[in-house]
User: Fold these one by one.
Assistant:
Number 1:
Amino acid sequence: MKKFLLPLLFVTALTLSAADLAGSKDNPFVSRFEGSVIVRYKAANYDTLGFRGMDKEKKELAAPVSVEGKMVRVGYDIPGGQASSLEVCRNYENALKENGFEILASLQVDSRSAGDFTCQRNFPGISPYNSQNDYYVYATKNDPAGKVHLSVFVAEMGGDEGDFKKGDTAVFVDSIQQKAVGNKMVDGTAGDMAKQLAASGAVRLYGIYFDNDLADLKPQSKPTLDEVGKLMAGDAALKFKVVGHTDSLGTAEHNLDLSTRRAQAVAGALVHDYNIAAERLTPIGAGATQPVASNDTEEGRAKNRRVELVKI
């Protein structure tokens, strides 16, 4: 009886074939099957993919679940029937287990319906009518940087299609590492801020960045601070309350202290880096007492974490 090859068949991510697609890399959480060549590749800092686990009661695939975060998609071609799709599938399954993943689904699927639950085919991938012996694996792993969702779709080609030739084995590895979307809203130029002041007497700053639960300004804050510096340099009469705001996570006392220290950090940067007189800035902490959105969602909490300049 033929035995499945163990993950020893996997080569490391450092052993890349010269035929790999330019700029491509192996998935960061699992390597490739021996003889694989990367022919499709896409990576994004934030995107979404769909995954399907198993419905344990019905003993069938559950409804698709969309997951958002850092995405990596790799499409491999194994030329000339070097390995069956089942052999490849079992190798990936074993490798994922060894890497600390929990297998939530591993099964053979109907090639005509595979596209209903695996978005690899829209890579673009392969026609559901041009493959056979299709297998699907879905696994997850808890990681300090965010839970990882990973799927593998393997099929034997019944005919030529794009990068894949008849007899080849096609492998698609998708992963998402979950994370909240970063707030990258641009606060605008000094002129934009002046218009906001004229309209409402205040400017909300979302381009001021801190690490979680800390009050040290991150380098990414500089473009917004540059514009505030220009605004105040252009109008020597301007004076502001610099008001720090947090979301509702944590105690009221902690949030008040954190928001105060963050407001002080912004005022301090304007004084020391932009030569703004200290008496023109009054740092104040408001904690979570003045939300502008619901604290029940991450999107709402991101809007509530802000610094405001209120004209005095």
Number 2:
Amino acid sequence: MALLGENGAGKSTVSNVISGTVPPSSGEMTWLGAPYAPANPREAIDAGVGMIHQELKLLPQLSIAENVFVGRYLMKGGRIDRKTMEVRAQSGLQRLGLEIPPSRKVEGLSTANQQLIEIAKALTLNARLLILDEPTAALGGEETQLLFRQIERLKTEGVGIIYISHRLEEIRQIADRVVVMRDGSKVQEFDRGDVPVRTIVEAMVGRSLERMFPAIPAPSEETMLEVTGLTSPEDRFRNVTFSVKKGEVFGIAGLMGAGRTELVRAITGADPIAKGTVKIEGRDITPRSPREAIRNGMVLVPEDRKLQGVVLQHSIAENIGYANLDELTKSGWITSRKLHGFANAFIKQFGVKGMGSQNAGELSGGNQQKVVLAKWLARKPRVVVLDEPTRGIDVGARSSIYELVMELARSGVAVIVVSSDLEEVLGVSNRIMVMAQGNQSGILDRKNANDVSIMELATR
């Protein structure tokens, strides 16, 4: 059963109630014909209900096997049976096509690999009901299909699955039923999965949706960003060369592990560069740190907003202020009035559903992403790099982010969009560069780009 809705519709809250993370204030549940009211996740797991959360819950200092069995370590002779844990963890990883030693620490693994470990963790629970909250948000096409095959196998074994996703085309492939939520209520239910995307979207947002992607403006002939022969010290990518014009949206596509995120982190100074240059308006600014990139008018909206984009325990106003301290300290002091006045203007401009004093951790994923965008766009950058800008974000919030991207392009900003979603990268880009195994496979003009041409380049 697919459970769909915009961010804030209540999908994750319902799932957290079912999985014992959040207590209900009223109502009742039954499981396998008997009353069901788990006081905590442990009771839910013992009853056969497992959940894969949208936000990663792994412990970076522990091994993969320890993370898979955390809270339920296998014991033998009074000691932790690490050998059996690693064998069983390895089996779960192999089912998902992940060839990583289970004894390795989680720290340093990519977001996509961590997501696959979360899924492997759920597979070892032998649950009779699995709740998957955005399980493919960080996965590429190949990894997603591996997961779908596992879902089909689990269905044949009698496992029930609640599947939450904002990738609506996935629903047509795997769902038997669809339930749509809006503003905390169930608004519609379909008894099949192959419901037209437009019908689902209109149920989610409560209005007719004419088009998903806004019109793409024509770029200037002037070049804003030039990247020449860029190579990573760890060989994550090599000899990458491209340019982005003023007012152009430049997409970067590729499968997981292709080197997309590593490339844009290097361009923006977050990762080191072995050789190559980065120029803005003809001037060499090859950054050695994010600070240098920011000073030269280039900002990065990272793929993991929870860990790298916002400080969850701090307020919205503080998060926006952190990226603009030079503007806020011109008189030497930061006052609460100045901070909130500055932040509130951008909260309003970007449509963040929250007050400046509210903690960023209390916001939905879409609103957290708007805070990240607000803090950087307040600097009026010349180059904006967006890594998976709509990961885990609902259709309504996606539309507003796409419109924002086009506004940036219309104002002459060079925009780079990295995305695992082919429909997205095709829908927003003037040109698309495809990467495969760290190499630049080719650059496609919008008129020549489609799913097939991109995948042909991505699998070279």
Number 3:
Amino acid sequence: MTAQDLTPILSLRQIRKVYGSLQVLHGIDLDVRPGEVVALLGENGAGKSTLSKIISGAVQPSGGDMTWFGAPYAPASPRAAMDAGLGMIHQELKLLPQLSIAENVFMGRYLMKGGRIDRRGMEERAHAGLQRLGLDISPRRVVEGLSTAKQQLIEIAKAMTLNARLLILDEPTAALGGEETQLLFRQIERLKADGVGIIYISHRLDEIRQVADRVVVMRDGAKVQEFDSGNVPVRTIVEAMVGRSLERMFPAIPVPQTDVMIEVRDLSSPARTFNNINFSVKRGEVFGIAGLVGAGRTELVRAIAGADPISSGEVILDGVTITPRSPRDAIRNGIVLVPEDRKLQGLVLDHSIQENIGYANLDRVARRGVVTSRQMSQFADAYIGTFGVKGRGSQNAGELSGGNQQKVVLAKWLARKPKVVVLDEPTRGIDVGARSSIYDTIMDLAREGVAVIVVSSDLEEVLGVSNRIMVMAQGKQAGILDRRDANDVSVMELATI
């Protein structure tokens, strides 16, 4: 018996959602059966998140019907959906930083034994779940200070301990490298064998043929196409998502200039997350940094940008040793960082787009130490237009899609005309249209003579945008590859030494 012969776990019929005069979902039909993975794809703003929130009880539909194993299903809250047997991994991390890993994994459903919280049982189960995902870390450790990738693995382990009948995975691999992604896929296969249904949302389209049994494509709040197999060419999926032909993803890479803009010599961190790193980046060069989760990539670029401490070594900018001790030092010298978590580290979500751009440029906006709303608006609006941000300047940054939020982060820093731009996971959780726009921005910077450093867990991305690639493994520099020598195999060989 195939999945198609089984009664659906979840059925949606003509699901609609209206906010005021804006209709964001237009009569969505969807079935998910036991033991199948349905990939739900679409650009940011296509309606995927709204649909997921309706299924998980976080948002109520404006119309339509849902059933769960044939019975009416209308969860009034996420708790009600969880009690029915639904688990969800959110794109935005929802861990409590001051609690331990085990406490986060079992938040709201602590194990009990003899009338007391069974901490040992929670720790053992949490540790086992993390080990299956390749993360060997004490479940007693607090979450605060862990990398985004490790927190993502904790979120996945949390969902997998629910014994759920249906899982919604929203960008589960966005912060993961290739090895961690494959470990997750193995867990998905086990869940399928146990009859668990999965809705899989991802912008990494190359993953779809590995994991999906069916593909559903959404555009502008409607279901526009469905494929009865995951083995669909990426170009076909992309064209269904955007409604047009997409001729290319990665633009042509400019030839770097001959002189060095930034050099790193023997750089090490106090916690030994990276050790004795040496590289240089020329004017107009895109320098990629690859490696597995925990390799020290993020810690390295944060140190270069003054956000993390340096125990030894030097950062030399344009021939002058600067070795920043704070972000202010780096920014003053012309080094800016677009961080991996735009929501927590890149934006003030409940402030406007104009304010977010202005905060990073007060020295340029202010006149005699005074900033007016008109000055802020005029300054920011120019960059909103330049970067194609789809939103009003007065609109809060938290109301934007992921791609537009990333454009705001880019706009606020590129307004400073930096010498070095460091991009940590620049397209994490961003659709193909916005991703292509960001790649164009990277190449524009290179043509202007800016040195660009790109950290990415997406191997196709780091290969597609870089003149050279440094591979890190366990905090060490495993090697630097020229573009002509870099491929999936050569990078992974260095990443796993």
Number 4:
Amino acid sequence: MKDQLHIMVTRDSGKIVRFPCTIKKLAVLLSASIFVLLFLVVTSIFTISLFTENRTISSRITKLQHQLKINEKTIASHEQTNQTQKMSLKLQLSNLELSNAKQAAAFKKEKALLLSTAVNELKERSELMEKIMTSVGITLKEEKTEGTKNSGGPFIPQQEANQDDLLSKADTYLKKIQYIPLGRPVQGAITSSFGKRKDPVNKKNGFHTGIDFRGKRGEKIYATADGIVKKVFTNGGYGKYILVSHNNGYTTSFAHLQTFLVKKGEKIKRGQLIGLVGNTGRSTGPHLHYEINLNKKPVNPSKFMQFASLLKSNSTLPEKK
């Protein structure tokens, strides 16, 4: 009976209720109560933790959903902007293509006009050079054509004033004309023309084989065509004398010089400085005696100077250096 305990509960009516219990049962009940209490505490803590974590996750989901909406709006706005920019770029590209097409058409028209003008000018200059060369006795050799045997093909008529032919002809004329003595060797006035005249020294009638130009001592003398210097020496009454061969039957000679500025055998170009005006030899004063010979016969230099002025006005010949 010692292990028994009595739990007494007094009611409002004064009645006492007794609950007999052993210590062993009380210990078991107490242990069970503690276990249940601990289980409830742990469960509560776990539940609270899950609830807190759930709220945190819900809050994050809400924020992410909000951010997603913002991003979707931003993306939509960017797509609209990109679409607008694409349309603008397409419009600019179309405008550029149209502008380029217009420019190309204008350039093509201008090119055709310039080409037509150039061809006409080239034709006129070629005809002028041909006239000059014919007048001074130089003709171009026609190219020999092949026979009609072992040949054929469709007939294609040759176009008038073919550009390549004109360029080839003009190039040939320019090469030829570089060796024709054109222009003035000095800028002084003419004091004695080509042909019959009264000799300035003995006053007798004679024949002048060139043209005399008044000049000052030391005035520059220029070559009138490309060629090779054949003679540089003191030639009696001609005084200091230069003879230039142009390898086409033409020669030019310069007399009464003060100074030579070229040597025998030297290749020279039109407009090159070759000497200085003087008063050497049979002379009545400083001047230049200028002669042109074709196949060793003197010709009048006047017409060569006239043609040079025509070519200069047409910008066909190079100017003196």
